Amino acid sequence: MPKVKIPRKSTNIDMTAMCDVAFLLLSFFILATKTKPPEVLAVNPPTSVSSKAAPDNAILITMTKNGKVFLMLGDGTRKAEILENVNRDNNLQLSSAEMAKWKKAPFYGLPLNKVKAYISSGENIPAVSMEGIPVTDTAHNELVAWLKGVVTAYAGTDQRKLQEMLLIKGDNEALYPIFKSVKLAFKKNEIFKFRIVTNNEPVPVGSELFLTGHNSKK
Question: Under a CB-based contact definition with an 8 Å cutoff, are residues 186 and 135 in contact?
Answer without folding.
Answer: no
